[in-house]
UniProtKB/TrEMBL annotation:
Organism: Anaerofilum hominis
InterPro entries the UniProt entry points to: Zinc_ribbon_dom
UniProt keyword list: Membrane, Transmembrane, Transmembrane helix
Span list, region Disordered: 29-54
Keyword Nucleotide-binding: no
Occurrences of domain Zinc-ribbon (ranges): 3-24
Protein name: Zinc-ribbon domain-containing protein
Membrane spanning residue stretches: 130-147, 153-172
Coiled coil ranges: none
Amino acid sequence: MTFCDKCGSPIEEGSAFCGECGARVSKQDTAASAVSEPQAPPAPQHRTETPPRYYGQPGANGMPALAENEVVVRQYRCCSIKRPSANGDLTVTNKRLIFHAEGSSSRVVKEVPISSVGGLDCFMGMNIRGGMIVLGALLALFSFLLFRIGGGGIFAGMIALALGVLLIFLAFRRSFLMCVYAQNTSSSSISLGSGIFSRGAGNGALYTLASEPTHDTARMMVELGALVQDLQTMGDHAVKKWSE
């Protein structure tokens, strides 16, 4: 509703002149009399985003699922397993040490709680297999006996000599051995080493895996002890420190 500036009489909507005094109605802002209808808020737009795939995501290289409030702190490509053929990763979370590997037809998962870790034993270097050296030397000596026989023994001697040299060559191999010991006998430890064999019960390894070092092995050996110690003493406060 608008009013005449001259006489103050009400003026009908859309009228150009005042009905009482005939004065011309000036154009005024009638925004105060107009009530704007409230507008509905815009509908929320839902976007489907693919979460980033980080190195320690469950399912990557046989990585098991994470527990509630469990986060990955560090992950190392710690070794190359020979039997079964696979690349081994050691994933450190705020709750567990997890070794996992996945090959074309095999899968390995070993884990121990962070709170139960009582010691670490690591070795990286040349592993010499004495049994293979002795067997290779015996084959080489046997080949010389076949050479002295002559005839068809020469061919057999060449094969025996080749096998002996091959065994001696394979007896020297770069190896990586690691054992994570638990503080109590109820928790099994993680063990990687030369050959698959039983080591009995207790807090030692249940079995070992033949493995070789990788580009991450040396860094893991330097960091792992301090990382476990911080997680045991600082708890989740160590996650930010080691995630940077």
